[in-house]
Design goal:
about 90 residues; mainly beta; Metal Binding Protein, Guanine Nucleotide Exchange Factor, Chain A; 6-stranded antiparallel beta sheet; 9 strands; about 55% strand
Length: about 90
């Protein structure tokens, strides 16, 4: 699977986990040059507290377009150390 934004592959892995229609990529599969930590955090009642990344590709910024759970609940252990995307990031095979 590939995560693409602004015509660049920002993550790629054969090992994604799909939860609630979102592909979660292993953290080490992201192209770190495009990711900047964000101060945004949200809470999911069953997964835990999410942290976000802003993605920057060729001077264009996609604020909070990637999220991950630094600590997960027992129900969400499968997505620990994984990153997912939204806000126009295309996921394709």
């Amino acid at each position: 699977m590939k995560a693409i934004w602004n015509h660049k592959i920002i993550a790629e892995s054969r090992d994604t986990i799909v939860i609630e229609n979102n592909h979660y990529f292993p953290h080490d599969s992201i192209n770190k040059e495009f990711f900047k930590p964000s101060e945004t955090h949200t809470v999911c009642p069953w997964k835990g507290t999410a942290s976000y990344y802003t993605i920057t590709v060729d001077g264009k910024e996609n604020v909070d377009a990637a999220w991950f759970y630094p600590e997960v609940s027992d129900l969400a252990k499968g997505i620990k150390n994984r990153v997912s995307f939204w806000r126009g990031v295309i996921i394709e095979d």
